[in-house]
Amino acid sequence: MTKSLSDYLNYQKYFTPAAMWEKISAVAKKTGIELVYAVLLLYYVATDPGTPKKDKARIFGVIGYFILPVDIVPDALPLIGCTDDMAAVLWALKAVCDNITPAVRAKARAQLTRWFGKVDEARLTRLLAAYTGEGDLS
Q1: What was the pLDDT predicted at 59?
Q2: How far, in Å, are 25, 36, 136 from residue 120 at the CA level?
Q3: CA angle 117, 14, 29 (to 5 degrees)
Q4: Fewer CB in 10 Å around end: N or C, the chain?
Q5: d(Cα 36, Cα 52) in Å, to the nearest integer?
Q6: How does pLDDT run across 1-38, given as a tens digit for each residue?
Q7: Backbone torsions φ then ψ of 32, nearest 5 degrees
Q8: HSE-CB for 78 with a 13 A CA cutoff
């Protein structure tokens, strides 16, 4: 089932920074650094004043979907519970990758370090390249 931008925009009303932080803390250990990094990148892109409103709307819709406990694939399902969330997040990252600045990457990496301790910078660079389909983004 493919969702369009308008489908995700319906979820904007569920986005709040507090709800996003709460959801991340609830799923961080289960999903690992990959999904957390992707959501942090989106959040920092969305809060950057230079990001176009259309992209902010797209991001807030996807993060709103991520926050909701009721998904297409329920988060409580072992192994597959967050696959729909990851698909939505990756779709949004690909759509807004031109807005992922070095400052955005630095903020996301700093937050990961606070939560997970030392992070492998090369791994994060590879993850971002894989997420966006771009080459080396360091």
Answers
A1: 93
A2: 20, 14, 15
A3: 25
A4: N
A5: 23
A6: 455 556 666 777 777 778 777 777 766 666 678 888 99
A7: 85, 180
A8: 0
Integer angstrom CA distances of residue 86 from 49, 82, 102, 103, 114: 25, 6, 23, 23, 22
For 85-130, give the secondary structure using H, E and C: HHHHHHHHHHHHHHHCCHHHHHHHHHHHHHHHCCCCHHHHHHHHHH
Q: Which pairs count as long-range contacts for 43-48, CB under 8 Å and 24+ apart, including other chains?
A: 43/17, 43/108, 44/103, 44/104, 44/107, 44/108, 45/96, 45/99, 45/100, 45/104, 48/99, 48/101, 48/103, 48/104
CA dihedral 32, 35, 45, 70 (to 10 degrees): -120
Whole-model pTM: value is 0.74
Q: What pLDDT sits at residue 137?
A: 46
| Predicted local confidence at residue 66, as pLDDT | 82
Query: For residues 138 and 135, what is the distance between their CA atoms, to the nearest angstrom?
Result: 9
Can you give the length of the chain in residues?
Answer: 138
